[in-house]
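Q&A log
Question type: sequence-to-structure
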Amino acid sequence: MSPYKPIDIDKIKELIATATTAKQKQMYQRGEKNAGGLHPVDADTQQSIDRFKDPLHFNSFDQNLLVEAEQKLQEEQQELGEEQGNSVTKSVDLVGKRKESNEEDKSLVSNTLVIPKKEKINTPIQDKEVESEKKLSEKEDEELTDNSSDSAQEEEEKESEDDENEYNSVFTAVGVCQGKLILDESEKFNLELGGKNYDLFYANTKFWAYRGLKKQIAKTGKDDYPLMVYPKVTHFPNKNQPHNLYFQLVAFDAGNRADIQDSIFTELNDGEFKISGLWQFIPPSRLPCISVFRNYDPKLLEYIKQGEVAKKVQITKATHVPIIWKDSPVQPFRFNPKLKKEEQKPLYFVSIKAKFLPEKNLFLFIEQLAEPTQDVPRFLKTRKEDKMELNKQRNKTRKKSSFKKGIQNRKQSPKSGKKPAPIFKSKG
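Response status: OK
Response body:
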């Protein structure tokens, strides 16, 4: 009975192909190199087997050793088979897990229509920074925007309404004024209405209107063209100090727009304005105002978030137009600091036509363009943090300018003839 047992070479090749680790593969390749395909044994077993080759040493005791060697060889083969089976089961489990994960990914893709991407493994500090950035961006969006509509379907339903209702469902303050235009030395226009002069400025996007109006006046000599303007009002903390009102130039009528039916010049008469906004009291004003905010625009919101503080405040700044409106169907909102948010009176969105009164520097209610509603359209508003930051920057610039002026005044002031008293040091 031979102590060596042959091993099938084809089986070894299959084991090499199914090996999961480099160590197993090397072990199977060493077995393949053996010419007869003999299974290697350890040193003790090999020593006992060598004794069987010499018939002089072969006795009953050696026969017992032969049996023990065969048993040991069988145990080693069984252990080798178990390791091979474990490796095969591990590989099968890994393949099964990969299939399950692929099926889960496919189900996610079919449900969300989004291809999952490999996520970067961040450290706990990076995770905290990412979470804080997300919270800050969400908070900034909430503070910059105010959305009173519950769903996008409501906005789509509003868009499908009549043109007049669409126009009245957004924040707006626009009107027509016709008066004498005066061009001062700094190439700026002043608009004379009711014996008062009002500043007439233009935005950078409306420079073409200013340039066209200037050329039209120089060409014709006429200085009282109907103007399409936005009213702008500045209120001061002191209620006894009257507000300041000026106008922003949008367009002018040179007399060639009579054929345009939807033009603002055909809808409104001289001195009439369309005003839509929140009907409320504000602290600096004794009269109730219609607050006109910047309408919501996602692209504008992204631009504001990336801009400087001064630019943010300038774009999101609201215009509070004081209105004389007797017998209004709803009461203007007045904030009560003693009440909670849920206990406050409702805030209404109104749309009216008003007449500008230059002698009082106010607007008088003429007619209602739409029913008051609590469904306020989305708008952009200025954050308190941005206002505080802008005030700090302004205070710094004022201090620097006052300090520079003080230094200049000292340099320009004549020096006195008195010399400073000498300083004597005591000896010792």
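Response note: Residues 152-389 form one domain.
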